[in-house]
Specification:
Elements (H helix, E strand, L loop, with lengths): L1 H32 E4 L2 E4 L7 H18 L6 E5 L6 E6 L4 E5 L33 E5 L15 E3 L2 E3 L2 E3 L2 E4 L5 E3 L4 E7 L9 E6 L4 E8 L1 E2 L6 E2 L4 E4 L10 E8 L2 E3 L5 E2 L4 E2 L3 E5 L13 H8 L13 E3 L6 H7 L4 H8 L12 E3 L2
Antiparallel strand pairs: 1-2, 3-4, 4-5, 6-22, 7-10, 8-9, 10-18, 11-17, 12-13, 12-16, 13-14, 14-18, 15-17, 18-19, 20-21, 23-24
């Protein structure tokens, strides 16, 4: 029994050392011959430098690797672990090695202010008048990139839609199309339709610069509250859940809970970011302020009054056999006296089948 235990321990130690050596060799190969896209390793031919430089580098790696292992193994697949940034790389010679995919560096305090995973909007107590007149937001830098959530056509902009403010943009897509995180961040909200109303299945991601991005009407989301996500990471699939008339992505950008036109940041048509540092001005939070206006036009538009609410439409009841004024009044939660006043009739009026009675 002791011999078996001793043999097992020696075997585990040998495999761990071998795996570490393999990882070191693979690290050097990867630096020159591979690129990582989230959870997949892609091999590519290095065309930088001169032919002689590449030949020297290949010979240097070949000599070291062949002295230990013979021919260089080729990575052909990756396996997930409990940590999505920690993968197992499989080689074509039936060996493996651990590999760490770069995890975004984010402040530890990202979830310390107004962090609520059960409410889509969490800055309800923040008054617009208390926000600064302008703030500079660093959107990307050498460590943090960006991605267009979906490269579709804008079918509804950040404007009034009728008399209702539309506080984001709608991006046309097909059911099941991929949706990507716009920037590095932490998922604050991942909630299904029954908790979000018009948003349907929705994700809200908080970013290090104070922004939050919203992704609504998803058919499915594949991340959870508290997950760290990387710009361009697949987070869900397009759908038509919630208050939606067809598949599209409802995308919002908010600062301290206040929405502004996402097209001020993204050029969705060309799939690029408009700037690396964005100056967010208070008047941008007005639904009348949108991309394409000058600051002077935006400021003037932000002071425009909201559209007056539409007058309620009249409601009529078509008299059927057996209807009475009392029965109609009960059905529409009103009184016979009010019905008579609306229609200019007396309480003793005999109703005719097919007659239209105004009830509101």
């Amino acid at each position: 029994m002791k011999k078996v235990l001793l043999f097992s321990l020696c075997l585990i130690f040998t495999l761990s050392v071998y795996s570490q050596d393999r990882k070191n060799i693979f690290q050097r190969i990867r630096d020159r011959y591979t690129t990582i896209v989230y959870d997949t390793i892609y091999i590519y031919q290095d065309t930088t430098g001169t032919y002689e430089d590449n030949q020297l580098a290949e010979e240097e790696i070949d000599e070291e690797s062949e002295s230990r292992f013979g021919n260089i193994p080729v990575p052909f697949d990756t396996l997930d672990t409990d940590d999505k940034y920690h993968k197992v790389v499989l080689f074509d010679d039936n060996t493996w090695a651990f590999f760490d995919i770069t995890k975004p560096i984010l402040p530890d305090t990202l979830d310390s202010d107004h962090w609520d995973t059960d409410q889509v909007h969490t800055y309800r107590d923040v008054d617009l008048k208390n926000l600064p007149d302008e703030v500079d937001l660093v959107l990307i830098d050498s460590l943090h990139g960006y991605c267009i959530p979906n490269k579709g056509q804008i079918v509804s902009e950040f404007k009034y839609r009728g008399r209702r403010p539309h506080k984001g943009v709608d991006i046309d897509l097909d059911l099941g199309d991929p949706v990507y995180a716009a920037f590095d961040g932490v998922v604050r909200v991942a909630l299904p339709t029954r908790y979000t109303g018009g948003y349907g299945n929705v994700l809200v991601i908080r970013h290090a610069n104070g922004l939050e991005t919203y992704y609504g009407h998803l058919s499915k989301y594949i991340v959870n509250s508290g997950d760290v996500v990387t710009a361009g990471e697949l987070i869900g699939y397009g759908g038509s859940t919630g208050r939606s008339t067809g598949p599209h992505l409802h995308f919002e950008t908010r600062y301290m809970g206040q929405p502004f036109d996402p097209q001020r940041i993204f050029d969705f048509e060309n799939g690029i970011l408009r700037c690396t540092v964005f100056t967010l001005r208070k008047h941008y939070f007005s639904i009348n302020s949108h991309y394409g206006q000058s600051d002077k036009e935006s400021l003037a538009a932000s002071k425009a009054p909201a559209p007056k609410p539409a007058a309620p439409k009249a409601v009529y009841h078509k008299v059927r056999k057996g209807d009475t004024l009392g029965g109609i009044a009960r059905k529409y939660h009103t009184t016979v006296k009010k019905l008579c006043k609306l229609n200019g009739i007396r309480e003793t009026k005999v109703l005719q089948i097919g007659q239209r009675i105004k009830v509101r």
